[in-house]
Amino acid sequence: MWKKASITLLLVSALIFGSGFSHANSDSNVTSVPKVYYTTDWKNVDFQELFDRILQQYKDGQKDGITKQPGTPVEASPAQPDSNQQDVEEQRTEQTNDSTLSEFEQQVVDSTNAEREKHGLAPFQIDETLSKVARMKSQDMADNNYFSHESPTYGSPFEMMQQFGVTYRAAGENIAKGQRSPEQVVNAWMNSEGHRANILNANFTHIGVGHVANGNYWTQQFIGK
């Protein structure tokens, strides 16, 4: 009984401190809602290590007096587009410069703002520097073949923002992989609790979006100014 209570306490603490782990899988060919899993193999968990990690993340979030809560990854089952579709996606992802949004990226912003307006929230303003950072994060995931908020090149999303001179009162990040359209990726994020919370966070005022066609990596970065 005590053991169960301890496990429950750790889970609650993890969610309170913004470090709950979730993984949402969606099949790009199916319209059903993606499932979100909050499970682990408790037999192999080092609870002291887990507690120490939660405590450290909480302390890191307190340093700036803000809530730093990146969303957890959303990954779609891989699909093999035909060559014509691949050409279209690559064209839609091309940017005229580092800060201009591609067609796909603008559609993500528009769909995200539509969701905010449904809930009575002000639409996000596009931050060009943040969009450049978000695109670099997606490119970094594609180049280095990883799928995580923690970049081997830039560190955490918040460290990466700071490296490029982005300042904020609050910040967050959503990432996704495999979705082949803006509609698919925004739907996947909205059907995942953590990502939805970032999109509907009233403390966030500005957004940056980055999409890389190679592997279909998507990044949303949010800040509150």
How would you concisely characterize the structure shown here?
The chain is α/β, with parallel strands linked by helices and 225 residues long. The protein has helices spanning 2-16, 47-63, 83-93, 103-118, 128-144, 157-163, 182-190, 193-199, and strands at residues 23-26, 35-37, 74-76, 125-126, 170-177, 206-212, 217-224.
Characteristics:
Pathogenesis-related Protein p14a; 44% helix; 7-stranded mixed beta sheet; alpha/beta; CAP_dom; 225 residues; Putative YkwD family protein; 8 helices; disordered N terminus; 7 strands; globular
What do these coordinates show?
Keywords: Signal. Pfam families: CAP. Residues 1-24 form the signal peptide. Residues 110-222 form the SCP domain. It comes from Gracilibacillus halotolerans. The protein is globular, with a radius of gyration of 18 Å. The protein contains 8 helices and 7 strands; from the N terminus they run αββαβααβααβααββ. It has 225 residues and is α/β, with parallel strands linked by helices. The chain has a 7-stranded mixed β-sheet. Helix 4 runs parallel beside helix 7. It has 2 domains: 2-63, no CATH class; 74-224, Pathogenesis-related Protein p14a.
